[in-house]
Write a structure and sequence with these properties.
Blueprint lengths: L2 H5 L3 H6 L2 H11 L2 E7 L8 H30 L12 H5 L1 H27 L2 E6 L8 H18 L5 H27 L26 E4 L8 E2 L10 E7 L7 H7 L7 E5 L20 E5 L11 E3 L4 E3 L6 E3 L5 E4 L11 E3 L5 E3 L17
Antiparallel strand pairs: 1-2, 3-4, 3-5, 5-6, 6-7, 8-9, 9-10, 10-11, 12-13
The protein binds FE2/S2 (inorganic) cluster.
InterPro entries: QcrA_N, Rieske_2Fe-2S, Rieske_2Fe-2S_sf, Rieske_Fe-S_prot
Membrane topology: Multi-pass membrane protein
GO molecular function: 2 iron, 2 sulfur cluster binding; metal ion binding; monooxygenase activity; oxidoreductase activity, acting on paired donors, with incorporation or reduction of molecular oxygen
Length: 373
Amino acid sequence: MSERRKDEVTAEQLDEMDRADLVRLGTSLDDVELVSYEERWPVRGTQAERRAERRVLMWFLLSAVFGLAFVGVFLWWPWDYRAPGEAGYALRVLYTPLVGLTFGLTALCLMFGVISYAKKFLPHELAAQQRHSGSSSEVDRRTVAAEFADAGERSGLRRRTVLRRALGLGGGVFGMGIGVLAIAPLVRDPWKDTEGPDSLWHTAWRSSPGEKVWLRVDTGEPEEVVLLRPEDMHAGGLVTVFPFREEEREHAERLAAALRRADSAVLVFRLRPGTKVTTRPGQEEFNYGDFYAYSKVCTHLGCPVSLYQQRDNLLLCPCHQSQFSLVGNARPVFGPATRPLPQLPLDVDEDGYFVARGDFVEAVGPAFWELGT
Ligand code: FES
């Protein structure tokens, strides 16, 4: 409809119109022809209407039930790592699927409820509209507002108290689930524990005064202890190692656990003799001759940096192709990673075995862990 026709409608005329008139005016001004606009349930309170109402109600209530289940699983289901075969393994394996399943079903049931309500209770409208351009006029704004108000009224949501409350319950629990995700770190602060074995402030390479932490090679046998010595590696060689403490030797469970901790894996390189390396300030003494040790956890998103291009002294992360230069002290030279791989200070003990001279001095893994430092 042209602006001229809209201008023909005065403010006084608008004031005199009721909502139905405004709806009709709005559709005609928008060049919309309402072919049909029928109430779904012209006769109220029939068996069929109540059946439809129960069906919608069922979806909203199911959404609320799954939403509560999601919150329960997220907060209370055991989630810590257990190896296959250990007690409680089957239960912990279910954690992630259950979180996804309950959250997905909450959203799905809520959507089904809304769709079902729209299909069963909103007026059946068949309209044809011409396209037009330009900004909205006063007439447009008022008529559109009237159309929304009319749709809300005709939807019957106002008088269907039970359905409205069920929708509120489903939507509320769904929102609560999202809220729980947002505030969970405030309740269980991952930064709070600074000393415990699972604290984010240090890795398993940290040693107490006088304690030796050796570099142990993973042979595939969790109970086998093979310690690394310099002569075990050829020039250009690479070995993945994990921390080992003498008191773990007789404890199969602790030996296996030492290989599992996510931030423990370290790559030890023996560069070719004479390879010129740029060291990082404060870490000039972290290497042992031609031997350098870096965290294996990619500083982009935490994948194991496991591809070694020996000829170019490059380490490649297979996930998003970050490349780290071994002669540039493991700084990223390509890809999305922005931080170098943290370096582990190395030494060799009196028996000729590699030991760690201390923990990493930087955060291991994805950069976001550094936010609190
Ligand atoms: S996780 Fe290594 S590049 Fe993305």
